[in-house]
Amino acid sequence: MNKKVTKRKRAKVEEGISRSGILGDLDIYNSYVKKDRALRIIKEMSEFLRILDIRESDILKTMIVRFAIEAVEASGGSLVVYDDKRNILKYQNTFIYDSNNKIVLDTSIFECYSDLLDIEIKIGEGIVGDAFLKGVPILVQNISESIYPVPQLAKVMKLDVNSAITVPLRVNNDILAVLEIVKTKDKDPLNKNDLETIMIIANFASATMENAKLFLWAIHDSLTGLYNNHYFYKELKDEIEKSKRYGRVFSLVMFDIDDFKQINDRYGHIAGDRALVHLSDCIKRTIRKDVDIAARYGGDEFVIVFPNTSAENALKVCQRLLNLVRSEKVIFGEKEFYITLSMGISEFPRDGEESYFLFNHADEALYESKRLGKNRITIYKGK
Q1: What average pLDDT is seen over the chain?
Q2: Where are the domains of the chain?
């Protein structure tokens, strides 16, 4: 918002107060300034979310907390995230602001923050746990006179707080996190207007998180968490275009689990799914995050694109993956077994400049690995 416009608006408010004969009482003016600030920050947040890549969830989580703190001139805030495997809440994104509404970045804050990350909140415990349990926002204007203990955020970060707000963040009716905002005693307590502001910000954030979740569902395989083949084809097409433009090489790897049908026949299809999950976990631990592109191609077949990587260098990564996969047991109940892979590699542009040729040649190399006895990697050598 233009600062000159803001000053003119404030001047008009002051003029109105003066004419009404209550210049000594600045409550109306202060209320206007707070609402103006909150609306301005909400507008900034909506613009930020409009241009944010919905895959950048870490940035989203960080900015939710910062926008909320700044909108109500609070002293600190956190996003407390639900761990569904352990049924607890954990602090994740925390910011502390001084009396001038500036972020505090001194060493003591970082030392306290590391302690905060170790805190585990049970469902129903304190103002955060209660907001999660009941699924409703909570406003506490005087903590010392409330039923709630001092929030963990305030304790660990050594904040002398007087008030707090907690708002659950819902995605598809599931609560994924709780937004916690606190104010110290040197500031006016948080009030109902502040609660409304925080709820607006939380609703914006929830909608964005829901869109992100839908997007991730649309491009990922539900069992393995890797990309699905539809999205992989799009990424492969983009990589071909970029590599042509900049004169780069890349490698395409195709592979599957050796004797996968026998695993299903002997141990059952659920055990087969466990093998696929085990393999996908090994893939994620081996490839470069946000660089290499891995997907479940179908059944027990997988594909990886290694950008800016020759077939010889891709072979080294594939060897690490193969060693990792065959060294770790797949555990399903009381059953344990090992798996191996057969892999084939083709290289752009040597083995083709279109996806059809790259897939065909990687597939031929894969079946050469099968022919040679499985549990190995073959680079396509041409006819």
Answers
A1: 85
A2: 1-51, 52-219, 229-379
Residue 157, token pair as written in the block: 């970060």
Neighbours of 313 (CB within 10 A): 14
Using one digit for the tens of pLDDT, what is the confidence trace for 121-165?
Answer: 999 999 999 999 999 999 999 999 999 999 999 999 889 999 999
Candidates 3.40.50.970, 3.40.50.150, 3.40.640.10, 3.30.70.270; CATH matching 229-379 = 3.30.70.270
Which parts of 170-286 fold into alpha helices (H)?
192-219, 229-246, 260-267, 269-286
> What pTM was estimated for this model as a whole?
0.53
CA distance 148 to 130: 9
DSSP 221: -
Query: Among 195-199, 257-261, 316-320, 375-379, which stretch is predicted with the lowest mean pLDDT?
Result: 195-199
Selected from 3.20.19.10, 3.40.228.10, 3.40.50.300, 3.30.450.40, the CATH number assigned to the domain covering 52-219 reads 3.30.450.40
Vertex 26: Cα angle to 20 and 29 (nearest 5) = 85
Q: What is the pLDDT of residue 373?
A: 97
Q: Quick one: the chain helix, strand, coil %, rounded to 5?
A: 50, 25, 25
